[in-house]
Amino acid sequence: MEKKGFIDVDALLPQISLEQAANFYGVQLPELRKIGSEIRSACFLLCGKQAPTGDRALAIQAEHPAKQWHCHAYGCGKGGNLVSLCDLMKPGGSGSGRPRGERFKEIAGDLKAIAVGQSSSNPALSAPSQVSVLEVPKINVPLKNSDNERARALVDLDKKFVVDVAEMNPKASAYFRRRPFLTPEVCRKWRMGYVPRDTGSDKSGGTMRGTVCYGYLDENGDVLTWFGRDPDYENKFAAWNGGGRVDPEPEKVHFVRGFHRGSSLYGTHRLHDPDVQEKIRQLGLIVVEGPNDAIRLDTLRVPAVALCSNMISRAQAVKAAELARELGSGIVTVLLDCDPEGVNGMKQCLGYLAQLTPVRLAWSDRMFGGKFRGRQPESLSIDEWQEIGDFLKSGTAKEWTLA
Predict the structure, then answer these.
(1) Residues 6+ apart with CB under 8 A from 182
(2) Most C-beta atoms within 10 A of its C-beta, which of 70, 168, 280, 360?
């Protein structure tokens, strides 16, 4: 017979998400990256770390019933399940991820409360993240206004870019040939291109050299930062994945340290063109994942902004809702990648946005008869976009099923 007051923790774990647990303890989650079945993020735990970690230090199996996790930060190696995560998010004397005795009983009670939708009985647990977000907003400053002289010198980095595939190395040229919409004219318009390893005597470009580099512009067209995409990432990832994942995972996209990716939306500088507002009124403000998605839609004369992630942050959701109301009817249209990672991100994106403004879905792996399953917006043809656009304007599609 079960003892009085017994809480079946194992039965509760599958019912609770990472986000629910973090909200209960007032923890502001950093940007979350979905990689296969894992969520990767910087460490947000009260683990005694002396400095911020990399943005992929924590690996959390979000779909595992117990939310198993491991920290890859140098010298750490902690891991466990949702109970240990709660132990390292809950203020007070933790058990270093292995709670015992009264501490375990407290966390078991917390899990029971989270599962039934209760908020923390201690107001201090939820207040800090709300106050810190309001009092210390993360703002990205244009490079031209940076306090760092070296950063200011990078405002015109795109003068070093190569945009003609005939002048690129094989890996970079293959990246552009697979995306024929990235013509030299489009590259110059969006301030993106390939940064060669040799950028001249001044050695400008730093960590962007050897990457396909994109300018992240603000609404006024000023450069906030540059970020680079490894043109050989797919081959490196396949080799890493097939080699037992012993070495650190290869980096797909590199952002300069200090840039708050979750505080901005890519492509906002294109939203104030004369013909854009009418299209946003018809289609909603379209939100996509990556920069190539936004650029491809722009070549189809469709305005869109990108998250540069498959998850939306709270700040990005607020910004998208504000832009939708300012420029259109207030509707945000979600068009994330139509693969498993994108579908998971789509659900999170819809949940965040629906709390702020009307939101709708442009496609899914089941809509349109499933014809777009596995696709990305950057791969759309003119005719395929026309079908999606007609659906958004009319509210009806030729073939679709409920998810």
Answers:
(1) 176, 192, 292, 295
(2) 280
